[in-house]
Amino acid sequence: MSGGGAPAKAVEPQPHPPKEQLPNISYCITSPPPWPEAILLGFQHYLVMLGTTVIIPSSLVPQMGGGNEEKAKVIQTLLFVAGLNTLLQSLFGSRLPAVIGGSYIFVPTTISIILAGRFSDTSDPVERFKRIMRAIQGSLIVASTLQIVLGFSGLWRNVTRFLSPLSVVPLVSLVGFGLYEFGFPGVAKCVEIGLPQLILLVFVSQYMPHVIKSGKHVFDRFAVIITVVIVWIYAHLLTVGGAYNGKAQKTQLSCRTDRAGLIDAAPWIRVPYPFQWGAPSFDAGEAFAMMMASFVALVESTGAFIAVSRFASATPMPPSILSRGVGWQGVAILLSGLFGTVNGSSVSVENAGLLALTRVGSRRVVQISAGFMIFFSILGKFGAVFASIPAPIIAALYCLFFAYVGAGGLSFLQFCNLNSFRTKFILGFSVFMGLSVPQYFNEYTAINGYGPVHTGARWFNDIVNVPLSSEAFVAGCLAYFLDNTLHRKDSAIRKDRGKHWWDKFRSFKGDSRSEEFYSLPFNLNKYFPSV
């Protein structure tokens, strides 16, 4: 080298620095978008949560003996209660932009109640439907006490204070990835509708913002509305054009836009009210089984809350806020039991994924969506129009949203030491078992018609089979146990598991960012201290 100087030292590539708050979010919890945009985004959240709201009653109500009229009323009730619970959660619970809606976790226990022999002596199908509904209501009312007590007493705070980024990764990841069975298998039920929806959604949300620069925020924020309208019109043209005439009944139910029967059966105006099906009935065994389903929902919702806080660009959730959110989710299950929604309540994973797709984590947007839920639940005919969207279109949306939530869980690896064999073992073993154990339970149930635990006591069977059929529950509990028992007190291991990143957020008091995100409105913190 001329001049005799030393050769320049090569610049070493630097790893991406960890971020306590997710960057590149357009609107965080406390920064609402302009009103017109917020209303459209809120309506988009309403469309997304309709999938679970319609699919679960459409599956359960016919088994209970109900027809289209009962199905429409149950969907209206579930929608109404979801709106109330979403408002309560965003105002007084976790304060996160989390939609609280129906949950698949409660379905196996509900089916077990439906198949109970004591209802077989009722010949009138509508009366049988009401009797089963009242039994489900009673079990949900009792089951709600679990989350109410654990949340408001602070017991769940004492559990979650031992969470670390390492133990959160399997939990949050499988909250999203564990729902793979509701993704492409649902798309394939009518592939000529579902696959175009999936391809169009990916193209509009991921490619169009880079192709047409001027409309960047239109395509990434409103991709769901744009693509659903296009494919819905296409599906309707196939229906009126006779593409499904003479096809199998299963194909027609999945593909046609006029097979739901909800529009004709739904009343023009109806306000759901508590005990509309009669006084709840109670059975001790069914109540215990539903309490276990409630506990599984509690664990999964803990992961979903953490995902929502991440996508809303909030600081890591303090344990006290998680506990408060769980308490209000218990209230949500109580309202589900009082009103008779045929299903419990938990955090909507698909709406958490929508936060990531739009990059809008505003609390106001989700509160507006709750307004849409209540409005369309009362105006039944208008709400039934949107509820008739074919299920494969909804399943295509799930493919993106569940993937986003799963990837959100993986993002917590940035706080962990991936060169540690302890980290590799806990991460790999918990995720593998979280996939393998439920696969065995679900496969066994599909082949035999009952779970591996099959005794004369149905409630005991559900207590064992339901939690071990949940990917997120198995992986989360296993990771939590291993992370807190394997050489936890070593100071180097504390850094390996990423605990030092979260300890400063153990209490939201004293941190201006956390106080802004999680403090209760109307100066209620002084009356209801969170820590």
Automatic annotation (TrEMBL):
Designated name of the protein: Nucleobase-ascorbate transporter 6
InterPro entries the record matches: NCS2
Keyword Secreted: no
Segment forming the signal sequence: none
Membrane topology: Multi-pass membrane protein
Chain residue ranges for the region called Disordered: 1-23
Source species: Gossypium schwendimanii (Cotton)
Keywords: Membrane, Transmembrane, Transmembrane helix
Tree of life domain: Eukaryota
Entry GO CC: membrane
Sequence intervals crossing the membrane: 43-62, 74-92, 98-117, 138-156, 162-183, 190-209, 221-244, 365-387, 393-413, 425-442, 462-482
GO-annotated molecular function: transmembrane transporter activity
Entry's localization field: Membrane
Family: Belongs to the nucleobase:cation symporter-2 (NCS2) (TC 2.A.40) family.
